Amino acid sequence: MPSIELEDVYKIFGDEPEIALKLLKEGKGKDKIQAETGQVVGVRGISFTIEDNELFVIMGLSGSGKSTLLRCVNRLVEPTSGKIVLHADGTDYDVVNADSETLRQIRETQMSMVFQNFALFPHRTVIDNVAFGLEIQEVNKKERVRKAKELIEVVGLEGFGDSYPNQLSGGMQQRVGLARGLATGAEILLMDEPFSALDPLIKVQMQDELLDLMEEMQRTILFVTHDLDEALKLGDRITIMEAGKMVQLGNPEQIIVNPKTEYVADFVENADPSDVLRSETVATTSFEPDENNRVRLTESAEVELDSKGRPVQGYFSQTPIEIRSLDELSELNEDVILSTGPDTPISKIMRARLTYATTPVIIVRDGVMIGFVTERNILHGLLEKGREDL
Amino acid sequence: MKPRYRYTSLILVALILTVGFVLLCSQTGYGETLQDKLLGTGGGFIPIEGWITTAVDWMAINFRPLFDVVTIIVNVVNDTIITILRFGDWHYSGVFVFNIFGTVVQIPLLAGLVGLLMWYLSGSIVTGSAGLVMLWLAANFGYWPETIETFSLTLTSAFLALVLGIPTGIFAAINDTADTIIRPILDLMQTMPVFVYLIPAVLFFGIGPAPGAVATVIFAYPPAVRLTNLGIRGVPTELIEAGESFGCNNIQLLTKVQLPVARPNIMAGVNQTIMLALSMAVVAGLVGAGGLGGVVVRGIQRMRVGEGFVGGLVVVFVAMILDRATSNIGQSTTEEA
Ligand SMILES: Nc1ncnc2c1ncn2[C@@H]1O[C@H](COP(=O)(O)OP(=O)(O)OP(=O)(O)O)[C@@H](O)[C@H]1O
Ligand SMILES: [Mg+2]
User: What is the structure's pLDDT at B96?
Assistant: First the structure.
């Protein structure tokens, strides 16, 4: 089910947006328009649909229009033109044309926001900060405090309810920000670089916790970041912005394997692809069984397939050895041929290969062998971000 | 507007003004009298003095009811504060227990209360005791009624300045046009030498505490406006966005985000307003507002150096008490740390 749909959204900062829109149509660039008219192109022609429970990442360099786009969704920034539709509670809201009361209600009940610099209210305790949205919803005090305490526990801040924000570390403050965003029960969470102000260790920890939270609670998240590793780790899908334009939209692997422009390629170059690349993507998929229905994996290792292409037996230097699924590995440290599904990240294969077999890993889908991953495939995947074309 | 247009229109306006001015001057014989004026002989070229005198006279007659209302308000507030401060005298009405001791305990009791209050507000027992000692000294220097008068004139004026100033400040913070208009008016109020409006105040409000209080309100009102405005405008954008993103309406934004966050600034404004009110309440002694200002004025006029000096010293005591009692209020709850 779609949650938010954006269609051709533009934002021009300045008092003569029509002129800028016209120049954009004529194909002039952001810098040129700014120099000529003083109008700043924030975002231009953005369209995409975010699904329910999706974690959708907007990523790009500073000034590329990420925050502007995010703020268009709850209209902290007024879009110049375009359509934004919010599907919630069985209703379709036309966000751009909503009157101020409808907009206020949407903000109160359907969306909440988490900020880069936390934006906690300095005069309120942690509990009162978390309960802020509920206060606006006019929930009674007792219920408010109960709910706030519950969320404070969820984000791991038990015992700090009566502290003031300036008594907490950055990581703790952002937990409060997160709890405040979750407390209203809003389906949609808008997060503008929520972890950028945190130091690297805390940042990774918060990312993991956010993923855990996503498992427990059903939320749709629109997440802004300028950090590709963060985008790859968190995003179900990622859109990459450049100078207000969307240059690519895809899942993490698509971005890594197939960067559409130079700009995206530059980003991807230094990213660590090992958690993103899937086994199927790097595997050798062209193989021919011999007359005994065996497939040669290396000089000394082979597997035998049945008539439907399912692996039934492994051999190492002609000696039969077991085929074991990567996911079922226990403490055993014997020679096996490993098998795994098509979606296993190669980091997991690499880790298994460190401890277990030296033989290639066979990739199966629904029991049928579709390819195998050798050391060479992995190295190629890591260095070239994709499959070796044989 | 594009920058280009902006400059063009500016130059155009300047041109029109210049031409108009030259025409006006040639028509009115400015050239011939210019030398006189520059040398300071003869009156000003623009008869603004006459206009103002006329306006003041006209207002003194036609705005009488308004001025009377203001006088009544000031007197009521002032009398109430005096009555409270002079609770030792309540025995005249035969109601309160203080009448057992009469005025004998009034001063120590009041000094004690002020000391406790300062201790509570500043959080320091040293400040508290200093307050106690200073008030006790002030009383024993022999100017107790005058001290009370100055105290109450200060508090009355500060109270009125704040009641008017804080809402103005809020308005100026929310509305840019209002801010542009209010700003020069505040400059005028703060920099115009006080005697200039102290005298018309007597014309408008007669004698007694009212003209002094009005002049004091004019003098003490700007910092209340400025610091409230500054405080609210200084609230970080992210906090405003946070409020809005949770669905605050404008009133909620003001009461739940802007005012509480601006509180330290507003409280600094309260403190400044009170201090300015005190300094002006003393100057108001010149127009018969009495109090410690009267003591100082009398001392100077009659060449009684001691009397003037003691009056001044008590002013310092009162100033310190008021300052210490109000300068910490802003911090006490925001930074519980
Ligand atoms: N209120 C504004 N008035 C004028 N121009 C603005 C305004 N806000 C943003 N811009 C401009 O719009 C463009 C996009 O800004 P935006 O803040 O969305 O970038 P961003 O991708 O979030 O960058 P960052 O990573 O630095 O936060 C920039 O060129 C910026 O200068
Ligand atoms: Mg940003």
Answer: 40
Tell me, what's the pLDDT at A354? 78
A105 CB within 8 Å of a chain B CB? yes
Q: Strand A55-60 relative to strand A91-94: parallel, antiparallel, unpaired?
A: unpaired
Tell me which residue range forms the domain holding A310.
Answer: 279-384
| CATH 1.10.3720.10 residue ranges for chain B | 61-69+143-336
Which range, of A84-98, A372-386, B252-266, B317-331, averages the lowest pLDDT?
Answer: B317-331
Range scoring the smallest mean pLDDT among A84-88, A320-324, B277-281: A320-324
Is B337 in Cβ contact with A123 (below 8 Å)? no
Interface A–B counts its CB contacts (< 8 A) at 71
Q: Which of A302, A292, A285, A301 is nearest to A368 (CA)?
A: A285
- Tell me the whole-structure pTM to 2 decimals: 0.81
Residues B322 and B274 sit within 8 Å (Cβ to Cβ)? yes
How far apart, in whole angstroms, are the C-alpha atoms of residue B92 and residue B107?
17
Domain assignment present for A320: yes
Q: Return the minimum-mean-pLDDT range out of A41-50, B54-63, B108-117.
A: B108-117
pLDDT tens figures, B201-248: 888 888 778 888 888 999 999 999 999 999 999 999 999 999 999 999
Pocket test for ligand 1, best of A67, A72, A193, A195 (most atoms within 8 A of CB): A67
Helix, strand, or coil (residue A58)? strand
Q: In the predicted model, what is the mean pLDDT of residues A258-275?
A: 88
Residues of A in contact with B251 (CB under 8 A): none
What whole-number distance in Å separates Cα of residue A155 and Cα of residue A177? 10
> Could A164 and B336 be called an inter-chain contact, meaning their C-beta atoms sit closer than 8 Å?
yes
Distance of CA A356 to CAs A214, A336, B280, Å? Answer: 33, 7, 88
Look at chain B and count its residues: 337
Token pair of B22, please? 């030259």
Minimal CA separation from A63 to chain B, in Å: 17
Mean pLDDT of chain A: 90
Confidence at residue A1, expressed as pLDDT on a 0 to 100 scale: 84
Other Cβ atoms within 10 Å of A47 Cβ, number: 13
Is the pLDDT score of A206 beyond 60?
yes
What is the distance between the alpha carbons of residues B237 and A71, in angstroms, rounded to a whole number?
A: 13
- The ligand placed nearest to the CA atom of residue A59 is 1
Domain end call among A268, A288, A320: A268
Residues A345 and A324 in one domain: yes
| Helix and strand numbers, DSSP H then E, in chain A | 15, 18
The verdict on A37 touching B (C-beta cutoff 8 Å) is yes
Q: Convert the pLDDT of each residue in A115-153 to its tens digit.
A: 999 999 999 999 999 999 999 999 999 999 999 999 999
Closest A-chain CA to B252: A136
Nearest to A136 among B236, B241, B248 (CB): B248
User: What would the CATH number be for the domain defined by B61-69+143-336?
Assistant: 1.10.3720.10
Closest chain B residue by Cα to residue A108 = B247
- For residue B261, which residues of chain A lie inside 8 Å, CB to CB? 121-123
Q: Which one of B241, B245, B252 makes the best mutation probe of the A interface by having the most chain A beta carbons within 10 Å?
A: B245
